[in-house]
Amino acid sequence: MILIILPISSAENTYALSALNYILSVIPFLGVFILVLYIWLWNTFGKVILEISPQKIKVISKNKLFAKPKEYINSEIKKISILDLGIEKTKFYTRLNYLFSKSHFSIIIQKDSQTIRIVDWLTIEYANSILEKINKIINLK
Q1: Strand partners of residue 59
Q2: Using one digit for the tens of pLDDT, what is the confidence trace for 70-91?
Q3: Given CB 3.0 to 4.6 Å as the disulfide criterion, which of 70, 114, 127, 140 pairs with 122?
Q4: What's the pTM?
């Protein structure tokens, strides 16, 4: 809608002034649109809720449409720790996450031979605080 209405309303006599006027008119709308889209996507798909009890850990994604809640029984969990994803290596690429953000830590559960990431992209302070709370509640049993 922005890309259709603004060119019609910004018609000028010369093409150069028209293009410049169009670009300068679109920038504020585009910036607000990207900000609103970012906030909406985070609130819709990005939040994770942890329910911690002495018997189990339940991971609930705020987006219940695409992700089902996952439960992990504490007796099956071997270890809960923090994983540093500052340098993420796969078969095809190496991604340096630490260059762009300080939020590159994950809380992981080691269960049998599996490593399961339950909460991703945390700062080290927030990851340590969550890990302390989990260990405190689990050790109360």
Answers
A1: 50, 70
A2: 999 999 999 999 999 999 888 9
A3: 127
A4: 0.69
